[in-house]
Amino acid sequence: MRRSALGSTTRANEQAMHLQPSDRAILYNIAMILQKGAELLLGMESSKRTLEELKTAVEQAQQAAR
Known about the structure:
Blueprint: H1 3-19, H2 24-43, H3 51-65
Helix pairs in contact: 1-2, 2-3
């Protein structure tokens, strides 16, 4: 899955969360998307990612863990 697709999917789930804030399945989906994004980024060749992207991915993975 491409990073842009992950971003679109994350935004769609965040919008769904605003509509149904008590839906734990949506929260789970967001966490899984953030975790998968971090996994994909860490698996990339280092020349194809930036330090800023890595920092963001780590922050998002920490957020997903909560």
